Amino acid sequence: MRRTNHMLAALIASGLALSACQASNSTPSSSTPAATSPAASSASRAGSEAVTVVDSRGNQITVPTEIDSVIVTDNRLFETLSDWGVKLSAAPKAIMSPDSPYATDESIVDLGNHREPNLELAVAANPDLILNGQRFANHYDQLKQLLPEAALIDSDIDTEKPLGDELKRQITLAGQVFGKDAEAKALIEDYDKAVARVKAAYKQDQKVMAVITSGGKVNYAAPGSGRTLGPVFKELGLTPSLETEGSSDHQGDEISVEAIAASNPDWILVMDRDAAVGGPDGTEAVPASKVLADSAALQNVTAVQKQQIIYMPNDTYLNEGIQTYTEFFNALADAMEKSA
Question: At what angle are helices 163-178 and 181-201 packed, to 10 degrees?
């Protein structure tokens, strides 16, 4: 039986909602109840048997056969679900790639960003199904408390596990949930082909450096686990030009540009954080290519002299889905094949 907004509003009134959620981060259309939004017909499994999936927490979740309202908070899934035609009733537009069709869809209620989400709007959306993860992972327990009758699926990936395994597990899960198993399989095949291309073209004696640019600065991305570029080294079997302890996250680590240059990488992999979100504190973004070109310390580096610098897609910081890595790996393979 569908839960009512009245009952859930009572939960909020009892103090379950965060006080920070009172500040609305929504677009003008966010005040419109999701019931008036287009039904998530593409997500409906009407007439089919109920499907039970295992989410990222190991929980067995039964997916409703009738889905009228879907909330998704996981950045890694927006590109895929948009391509699959899945209609959303609510999502955090504030942390979507501006290129996503969802970002400009006025029928989708904006939940704000992960730092100050407006979860009251999630309640008002009266969801049958929620896929939660990535930046919203820490809000799982509150969503479960506020929306106990919704099928809440943790779709996040484990950044301590191999990147490819987790991306493929996540997209397989999404395919099971929305009845898109064949489409999910195709995405996995494309990813595997891209990985195979890089491994075939890469010469093990060539050293690789990963950096993240932001605010006009070049930041070292430590090889290993974490987000964006860190796990790429293990996934592709790349030889780091410099290894030091670091967070290997999405912002970069405090290693000097001179140290990066001294390691003299044959290849530099770049994630331009500001290409997705603009410069820090509202400043104008400086393209990563200009940041590297303007760095005197890097000009004698082999990768710079040979123009062996490969950039992740511009929306990577707000995406990180399987397609992002497939595109990036194919670009890297193209360059390595040409340099052979």
Answer: 160
